[in-house]
Design brief:
The complex is a heterodimer of chains A (about 120) and B (about 110). By secondary structure, chain A is mostly beta strands. Chain A has strands spanning about 5, 10, 20-25, 35-40, 45-50, 60, 70-75, 80-85, 90-100, 105-110, 115. Helices cover about 0% and strands about 50% of the residues of chain A. In chain A, a hairpin with a 6-residue loop joins strand 9 and strand 10. Chain A is globular. In chain A, the strands form two sheets. In chain A, strands 2, 4, 5, 6, 9, 10 and 11 form a seven-stranded mixed sheet that branches. Chain A has a four-stranded antiparallel sheet with strand order 1-3-8-7, with no helix packed on it. Chain B is mostly beta strands and about 110 residues long. In chain B, about 0% of the residues lie in helices and about 45% in strands. Chain B contains no helices and nine strands. In chain B, the strands form two sheets. In chain B, strands 1, 3, 4, 7, 8 and 9 form a six-stranded mixed sheet that branches. A three-stranded antiparallel sheet of chain B has the order 2-6-5, with no helix packed on it. The chains are: A mainly beta (about 120), B mainly beta (about 110).
């Protein structure tokens, strides 16, 4: 079964750090662009970052540039999001998503992991 | 930066046709993807490349894209179609994915 499973969410104080992980299974992870997408409580979807198959290209939404780092380990079929200098506005459910090879649409999503930034 | 504009809500009676729009500057020149999200669940891709359906998505879901508006059309609406719907494009000028604000579809 094709699957993405996120982990690493939790409660963190403003200014703190957190590392999210996304474990992929059921497909050749190294063949796909991957993304992180977040959703603040009661709000819409916001794309956060993506990474090319070999990690050579990475893109970020402006609001997280310099604070978040996306990475991957193809040997471990895993995607990561290192989040530093966290702010209250980073509070959200974070989803990892696979980009379809042909269209780049996000055809597989994880169930999400909640990140709460609060003192 | 590129902005996608969706109506906050659309209401439709069962069996009727729902149309959800996604406005953007010359969006017709971009490929638009659509997602369905039910409460407490992850989004699901329902339309990609403007009008293609992934396997498992009913034929009642269709899409179009021209000029400054892309449209997701749901025919013969069912109660189970009640959800939030999001459009998405890649903004090549800023190298980022953009989502519309989302539309809540209510089945009356």
């Amino acid at each position: 079964e094709v699957q993405l499973v996120e982990s690493g969410g939790g409660l963190v104080q403003p200014g703190g750090s957190l590392r999210l992980s996304c474990a992929a299974s059921g497909f050749t992870f190294s063949s796909y662009w991957m993304s992180w997408v977040r959703q603040a409580p009661g709000k819409g979807l916001e794309w956060v970052a993506n990474i090319k198959q070999d990690g050579s290209e990475k893109y970020y939404v402006d609001s997280v540039k310099g604070r978040f780092t996306i990475s991957r380990d193809n040997a471990k079929n895993s995607l990561y999001l290192q989040m530093n200098s966290l702010r209250a506005e980073d509070t959200a459910v974070y989803y990892c998503a696979r980009a379809q090879i042909t269209s780049d649409a996000f055809d597989i999503w994880g169930q999400g992991t909640m990140v709460t930034v609060s003192s | 930066s590129y902005v996608l504009t969706q109506p906050p809500s659309v209401s439709v009676a069962p069996g009727k046709t729902a149309r959800i729009t996604c406005g953007g500057n010359n969006i017709g020149s971009k490929s638009v993807h659509w997602y369905q999200q039910k409460p407490g669940q992850a989004p699901v891709l329902v339309i990609y490349y403007d009008s293609d359906r992934p396997s498992g998505i009913p034929e009642r879901f269709s899409g179009s894209n021209s000029g400054n508006t892309a449209t997701l059309t749901i025919s013969r609406v069912e109660a189970g179609d009640e959800a939030d719907y999001y459009c998405q494009v890649w903004d090549s000028s800023s190298d980022r994915w953009v989502f519309g604000g989302g539309t809540k579809l209510t089945v009356l």
